[in-house]
């Protein structure tokens, strides 16, 4: 249902004059207020009003030069743990986009996935796209290339597919965690994975094998655990495993912080204590780490910086496109930082 500028101003708690300045991109208000209102208008589903204002000001021609789309092609409704990871990334991306003069739109495509991407995202509307998907594939690349809009992938990489991305440096992060456990005297080190096919988590599993081989850590099949689920499913699986007589190692590296919650619970119900019996390290550095009992040692990912870097890389690609320069795929990696808390003990 259409809404008038006066009604939108009332909903947002600003004057009609301020709303007019925002919709028509006129000076007279701070960049911070303008950016905040533009974001809220987009989130409320009234972004078409901004577009109409731009068209009126430019004689009816669509303006794409200042619009960036942040596209989510994964169903986070089913992956509740992911919800805690992405808001800081989005915040960092949005701040950098505003700094560079772009409008920033978040587009969820839960059901359509990539199949309707070319129908939904028009070249005339957007100068560039930041894209999150569970994994990169030839089919997804074909859809993205078909939009003819410059794009970068968020934490999604496939070495066989030519697409630029900004990702977590999983090799560095996992290696640092394993070496830290060795320095604490642990020689029995296991890994707990949910078994998801998400490209970044598959890479973490592979990086754990590499780190153990390089650091000469003995790998026991019983300690390389795949829960094939998260939450209560993971807890039930782990509890059954350790109650069945399979003894856990002295230290467990968990693929992300949220999976550490069922690991904690399963260890407790199986009669083990963290960290006295089993030390635990998470990955990502989410806020939940500081309120777990005991607090969770983790590999912190600089998520806001990751978001800003996405926009800087995308802005470079947009500039290269405008000058007809060759588009060379680039992968930028953000290192993770070890944050010591109370879940690891020295042997």
From TrEMBL:
UniProt-listed InterPro entries: HTH_LacI (IPR000843), LacI/GalR-like_sensor (IPR046335), Lambda_DNA-bd_dom_sf (IPR010982), Peripla_BP_I (IPR028082)
GO molecular-function term, one example from the UniProt record: transcription cis-regulatory region binding
Keywords: DNA-binding, Transcription, Transcription regulation
Domain named HTH lacI-type: residues: 2-70
Pfam families: LacI, Peripla_BP_3
Name of this protein: HTH lacI-type domain-containing protein
């Amino acid at each position: 249902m259409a809404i008038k500028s006066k009604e939108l101003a009332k909903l947002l708690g600003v004057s009609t004059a301020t709303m007019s300045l925002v919709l028509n991109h006129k000076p007279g208000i701070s960049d911070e207020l303008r950016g905040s209102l533009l974001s809220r208008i987009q989130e409320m589903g009234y972004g078409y009003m901004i577009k109409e204002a731009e068209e009126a000001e430019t004689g009816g021609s669509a303006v794409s030069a200042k619009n960036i789309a942040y596209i989510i092609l994964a169903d986070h409704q089913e992956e509740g743990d992911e919800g805690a990871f992405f808001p800081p990334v989005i915040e960092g991306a949005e701040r950098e986009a505003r700094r560079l003069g772009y409008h920033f739109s978040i587009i969820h495509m839960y059901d359509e996935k990539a199949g309707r991407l070319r129908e939904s995202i028009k070249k005339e509307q957007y100068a560039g796209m930041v894209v999150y998907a569970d994994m990169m594939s030839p089919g997804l690349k074909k859809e993205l290339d078909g939009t003819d809009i410059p794009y970068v992938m968020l934490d999604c990489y496939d070495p066989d597919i030519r697409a630029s991305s900004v990702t977590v440096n999983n090799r560095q992060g996992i290696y640092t965690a394993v070496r830290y456990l060795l320095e604490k005297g642990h020689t029995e080190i296991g890994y707990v994975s949910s078994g998801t096919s998400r490209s970044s988590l598959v890479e973490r599993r592979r990086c754990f094998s590499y780190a153990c081989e390089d650091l000469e850590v003995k790998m026991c099949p019983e300690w390389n655990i795949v829960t094939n689920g998260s939450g209560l499913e993971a807890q039930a699986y782990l509890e059954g495993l350790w109650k069945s007589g399979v003894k856990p190692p002295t230290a467990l590296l968990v693929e992300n912080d949220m999976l550490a919650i069922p690991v904690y619970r399963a260890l407790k119900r199986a009669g083990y204590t963290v960290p006295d019996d089993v030390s635990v390290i998470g990955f990502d550095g989410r806020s939940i780490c500081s309120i777990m009992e005991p607090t969770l040692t983790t590999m912190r990912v600089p998520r806001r910086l990751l978001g800003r870097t996405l926009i800087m890389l995308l802005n470079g690609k947009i500039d290269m496109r405008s000058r007809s320069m060759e588009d060379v795929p680039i992968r930028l990696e953000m290192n993770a930082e070890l944050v010591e808390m109370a879940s690891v003990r020295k042997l």
